[in-house]
Design brief:
With 288 residues, this protein is an alpha+beta fold. It folds into two domains: 165 residues, Jelly Rolls (Sandwich), CATH 2.60.120; 112 residues, Arc Repressor Mutant, subunit A (Orthogonal Bundle). The chain is 45% helix and 17% strand. The protein contains twelve helices and nine strands. The protein is globular. The two termini are 40 Å apart. The N terminus is likely disordered.
Length: 288
Amino acid sequence: MAQIVERPLSEYNSKLKLKGFNAFRIESDGNATRLYSRKDFYKICLTTGRSIINYADKSYREEDTILFFGNPHIPYSWETLSSQYVGYTCLFSEEFFNHSERTESLLQSPLFKIDGTPILKITELKRLNLNGIFDKMIEEQESEYAFKDDLIRNYINLILHEALKMKPSENFVQHKNGAARLTSVFLELLERQFPIESPDSPLQLNSPQGYAQVLSVHVNSLNRAVKEITGKSTSALIADRILVEAKALLQHTDWNISEIAYALGFEYPTYFNNFFKKHVGTNPKALR
């Protein structure tokens, strides 16, 4: 499977068929996954073929037809084993999908949870039914219908409800070293928070507690695993990555210090100045 490339917001938004949504056939647009930033979009994928999917702390080895649900906050990777791989993919942002409390609750369902059921086995009859729904979404996104956003959201809801009635796949292999896997998931999630593309889209995760909450683990468990594998604390790794980003923003943007501080999750510029001086030995202006 092609490696997913992170793109600036302005670039991938302009390439999506609708703002915050895109659907396509995998066999006809193999490079389409390059047009979105995975940290912003939920993903539903209906595929037929052999593959290995690493999702959070589990690895799934799948054959035939599956329905996969990707959460932008949970790291996953996909290795295609088949020479031929066909199906559909639909991408949607939380902003596009959430137009009521009812729809928001579906994103909190087991389908998108780190300890939930992201992969479902699909029968041939169910595959044909889901193919029809994906085809309707693809057709609708090209139409001129004034309310096509609402109609597409209904199609997404229909897929989610159909999925919630099914049983999850059980073809997962638990990693022997749970600490190593949890640390790997944390590090990938940490890296996915960057680069910071705009002062208007500040860093959301900047503490061990925040990462633990997203990963659905106790912060003490996360800290123990990270320390065991890396020899560093969770806080230190987060601080190191924020510092790398701070230096890049200072050297390669014209944002003022206050904008950079806010973009990196600091409530006040003074906090950022103190943080920077503690780790670098000088203030941000000196580096600039």
